[in-house]
Design brief:
heterodimer; A: alpha+beta; Arc Repressor Mutant, subunit A; three-stranded antiparallel beta sheet; globular; B: eight-stranded mixed beta sheet; six-stranded mixed barrel; 26 helices
């Protein structure tokens, strides 16, 4: 369970990134765009935080990074999900769902 | 579920960028910046597309991003360990790449690799072999408890610490009780016994030790038990411990050997234990098969003594302390008034200067050989690097730094060196067997020399350093012109550049110089040895044989019986056909015992500076000088001693004149004007002896000690051992069986120790110089061979580089003679310079071995001349062959080729 607010934030962002990458390898900007689209602009992620999350996940072995040429022929860093990352994603998703259920249970009670 | 992937980690259609796989710290920072920059660009173009001005879009993108500084710090913190690990793995991967690449390159040119490895194997092999000897003899401590502090202790006799003797038991007891600088002192007595198991009997080396010896060494028996206090008391049941080798070879290593009886010298002993494997007493070069309990019957019994210094005490401290104890028990026999002076020897001190210097000299020689081998391989690499110029240029263009390329070349060199090391170890292993087989008997402790881990480590270390040495120059030169020039040029390559040529020439000159130094040294040693061999021993050793016999007390209780036995034996031997003459003495000529005591000449006082306390001493019967061919210079030979009669059983015959003969040097020293004959002398408090004759000097070559200078001979009187000396008309081999049977017939209880020829004794005395000379000569020849091969390679290569030029000359009318002269001039320049430098260096270098030389100075002209001439001749040949081939160049072909 997350220890404090920043951990909660980190953990949330991490699982979002992992889930996004489960759709396929993409670079950092594409991930940010994807999340924005999916949440209809509700979630505006601070880019620095996103990239911090990406670096953390990369060093943790959950995602792998590779440099490539983007659609407009620019050098970009592409991230992809590793098997370990896939496992992590499932675990974190399950944890998040339980958490949501727990919080909702408290908040539901009038 | 997930999108399809063309290539793992990449979206469809995205190409991977070409990246050289190293990611240093700076690279990681750049990556972070690039990633941020890309993101910002995408964001800005998206914002522009939705209507913002570029400046507004930029401001908005930066705002959206967040704190870039903080982000960069955060990433760097995270990346730091990653960067370190990445650096390490980059290095490792880089090395692996280098190694793979180097192996591939070497496989492509197997001939080159083979020659290089062979050359290195010779150099490294020789080095390893000699180092293992040096390590075993000079560096390694005894393999026992506190082995580096184990010392040998002897009593000093005579003034000036000239001679030493094994101490007496009572002296040892005083030392044991009172010494502080030594933490333990133990004694032992070496000896020989005849081991018989019913059918055969053979002499076996053994020693008597007390129960404290094994704990002193810190070892335990391999089987059974050590001697106890009871075993060492006189009259105890006879027990024995076997040596490990004897246990294996005679009893198959079976544990039922305990309790069995063995027959030694006719007596039965029970085996109670077996010594651990490889046990050799410190300072004892003999391998011993039998160990008996040390039973001292009288306090005057002498024994070998070893001890262990206390930590912090030196051998000098111990010497001083032991010499400071007052003389032992009152009434004990004094020797030269100096009983009690002791000397403590460390292993290094005991080896003797000349042995140590010989080993160090050999070590230096193989070092030079290795340098020459490295120079040869460096030359090979230089030539080869030249042909890979283009490859290096391309790699440099792709971004490889010069350091990286140099590392690549060095990796190749080190790989070659390690391969040479492996091959060299094989050579060293075989070579060691050879060296041990050739080594003289005193160096028998070489039998323990093996390729131990220390030696292996040293060998690998030397190989790697050699690899760096011979790889450095080619590496630097080859990567010199990495851009531009070599890609454009076609004829001028780096290996043909003046600089490379000069480097190659310098290497060859160096090789030749070193070879000359070694050849001069070998020549000096050869002449020295030859001088030693031709030293006149003072007698005729040809076909002279000496047989040592003993008459043990249990069969020969009286002088009478001993005299009778020995006389019968001599008669029996005399009757053997092939024996020309026989005589009796105490020792084999020209060896002998030592008499110690102050010399006194009747009617004269000897100045204290001229005092002597040590003289060579031997007993001989009246035929001795005739049989052995020592000439009589003055006076006459003493009359034969009176044979003992029934009642003259005492040790000395008291009445009559005691006659003595002395050697010529003795006479010249104290009677320079003559008149030695008739004078009376005595040693210490012996009886007065009258000199009746002076005989020629007899000594072993290289034996230039004070004791052998002054030699005395007294009439033979039989003790418990004797030397039967005979001159035969036939070689020793055919005589031995007849001798044995004759002796057995004459007196069955006389024990024959050994039979040896005088020639072998003399050869043995020069064994060490012969050994040094042989090895050194072999190394010198090896060095010359390597240098000549190197020279040939350089000249041949230079010819191939100058093919066009030579072709032009021939086309313009040069005769073959002229071409040969042209090439040889180049070669001669190198050779002449090399020889000159070599001779100059040798003048200084050979001073180091002056102390090992006999009869030649270190600047002996003949040796230098011969070394120079031999080198010049052989190297000329090496130049001539490629020169001849150059003269046969077809100008058409040469000019057409590029």
């Amino acid at each position: 369970m997350p220890q404090d607010v920043s951990d909660l934030l980190h953990g949330t962002l991490d699982v979002l990134v992992l889930k996004t990458l489960s759709w396929g390898p993409m670079h950092g900007y594409a991930i940010a765009s994807w999340i924005e689209q999916r949440t209809d602009g509700t979630l505006e992620i601070v880019d620095a935080a996103l990239y911090k999350s990406l670096h953390r996940l990369e060093h943790g072995g959950a995602i792998a990074a590779e440099w490539g040429l983007s659609e407009n022929n620019r050098r970009a860093k592409y991230y992809s999900l590793t098997p370990h990352g896939r496992q992590l994603m499932r675990a974190e998703t399950a944890t998040w769902r339980r958490y949501v259920v727990a919080v909702s249970a408290v908040l539901e009670t009038a | 579920m997930s999108g399809e992937r063309d290539r793992p980690g990449m979206p469809k259609g995205v190409r991977r960028t070409f990246r050289l796989p190293w990611r240093g710290r700076a690279q990681i920072d750049r990556d972070i910046d690039d990633e941020v920059a890309f993101h910002l660009e995408m964001r800005i173009s998206a914002l522009c597309a939705s209507g913002l001005t570029p400046e507004a879009a930029r401001a908005e993108a930066l705002r959206r991003f967040g704190d870039t500084e903080e982000f960069r710090d955060y990433c760097q913190t995270i990346d730091a360990p990653y960067a370190r690990r990445a650096l390490a793995s980059r290095w490792a991967k880089g090395w692996m790449q280098d190694v793979h690449f180097a192996l591939r390159q070497l496989r492509r040119t197997p001939a080159f690799a083979a020659i290089a490895v062979l050359t290195l194997a010779l150099g490294i092999g020789a080095n390893t072999a000699i180092f293992s000897v040096v390590q075993h003899v000079l560096l390694a401590p005894f393999p026992y408890r506190g082995g580096d502090r184990i010392v040998s202790i002897l009593e000093s006799i005579g003034p000036g610490n000239q001679a030493f003797i094994t101490p007496r038991a009572q002296t040892v007891r005083v030392w044991q009780a009172r010494a502080h600088t030594l933490e333990q002192i133990v004694g032992y007595l070496p000896g020989e016994a005849t081991f018989s198991d019913g059918s055969t009997s053979e002499p076996i080396a053994g020693a008597s030790i007390a129960g404290d010896m094994l704990p002193f060494l810190g070892v335990r028996p391999a089987l059974g038990r050590n001697f106890s206090a009871r075993d060492t008391t006189v009259g105890a049941a006879p027990v024995v411990m076997l040596g490990y080798g004897v246990w294996q070879s005679r009893y198959g290593g079976r544990s039922d050997v305990l309790g069995r009886l063995v027959n030694l010298n006719g007596k039965s002993f029970m085996v109670i234990g077996v010594m651990p494997r490889g046990l050799a007493l410190p300072f004892d070069s003999q391998e011993r098969g039998i160990w008996m309990p040390l039973q001292l019957t009288t306090p005057d019994d002498r024994m070998q003594v070893i001890g262990r210094l206390r930590s912090g005490s030196s051998a000098e401290d111990a010497t001083r302390e032991l010499s400071s104890f007052p003389a032992a028990a009152p009434g004990a026999e004094q020797i030269g008034g100096l009983l009690g002076a002791a000397k403590v020897w460390t292993r290094k001190a005991m080896l003797g200067d000349s042995y140590r210097r010989t080993l160090i000299m050999l070590f230096g020689a193989v070092g030079l050989v290795l340098l020459i081998a490295c120079a040869n391989v460096a030359n090979l690499l230089l030539v080869r690097a030249g042909s890979r110029e283009r490859e290096f240029a391309v790699r440099a263009a792709l971004g490889a730094g010069r350091g990286r390329l140099i590392r690549q070349v060095l990796t190749e060199s080190i790989l070659l060196a390690l391969a040479g090391c492996a091959a060299g170890l094989l050579l060293a292993w075989r070579g060691l067997h050879l060296i041990i087989a050739l080594s003289p008997r005193e160096m028998s402790d070489l039998s323990g020399v093996r390729l131990e881990p220390t030696v292996l480590a040293w060998s690998i270390g030397v190989s790697i350093i050699s690899g760096l040495i011979f790889g450095l120059a080619p590496a630097f030169l080859a990567t010199e012109h990495t851009i531009g020039k070599s890609l454009k040029s076609s004829t001028r390559s780096a290996s043909g550049s003046a600089r490379a040529r000069r480097v190659r020439g310098t290497l060859i000159v160096g090789e030749i110089a070193l070879s000359v130094v070694l050849l001069v040294g070998a020549g000096l040693l050869l002449r020295s040895f030859s001088a030693l061999e031709h030293v006149d021993p003072g007698f005729d050793p040809h076909n002279l044989v000496g047989i040592s016999v003993t008459m043990p007390a249990e069969h020969f209780s009286s002088r009478l019986s001993r005299h009778a036995a020995i006389t019968q034996v001599v008669d029996g031997v005399r009757r053997i056909p092939g024996v020309k003459s026989v005589t009796l003495a105490s020792d084999m000529p020209p060896t002998g015992g030592i008499a110690f005591g102050d010399l006194e000449i009747a009617g004269r006082t000897i100045a204290s500076t001229a005092k002597v306390s040590l003289m060579g001493f031997a007993m001989a019967d009246e035929n001795y000088f005739r049989v052995v061919s020592i000439p009589l210079r003055e006076g006459r030979i003493f009359t034969p001693s009176i044979p003992p009669t029934m009642d003259a059983d005492s040790a000395t015959v008291d009445d009559g004149v005691h006659e003595i003969m002395i050697s010529q040097r003795f006479a010249k020293r104290f009677w320079p004007a003559g008149g030695a004959v008739g004078s009376r002398i005595r040693i210490g408090d012996s009886k007065w002896n009258t000199i009746v004759g002076v005989v020629g000097d007899a000594q072993l070559p290289g034996d230039l000690g004070a004791a052998s200078d002054l030699r005395m001979y007294v009439p033979f009187s039989v003790t418990d051992h004797a030397e039967i000396i005979l001159r035969s008309a036939v070689p020793l081999g055919t005589l031995v069986p007849q001798l044995n049977s004759a002796i057995m017939r004459a007196s069955p209880f006389i024990r024959v120790h050994k039979a040896q020829s005088a020639e072998s004794v003399i050869a043995h005395a020069v064994a060490q110089p012969r050994f040094a000379m042989t090895l050194f000569g072999a190394f010198a020849l090896l060095a010359l061979t390597l240098a000549v091969v190197g020279l040939y390679g350089v000249i041949a290569y230079s010819v191939s580089q100058r093919t066009r030029e030579i072709g032009i000359r021939i086309a313009l009318g040069a005769q073959p003679r002229d071409v040969v002269a042209l090439v040889m001039r180049h070669g001669f320049a190198l050779v002449a310079l090399g020889i000159a430098i070599g001779i100059a260096a040798a003048v200084g270098a050979t001073r180091v071995i002056q102390s090992l030389l006999f009869g030649v100075g270190s600047t002996d002209l003949l040796s230098f001349l011969v070394a120079g001439v031999v080198t010049a001749l052989v190297t000329s040949l090496a130049c001539y062959v490629p020169a001849r081939r150059a003269a046969l160049i077809d100008p058409l072909i040469a000019l057409r080729a590029d």
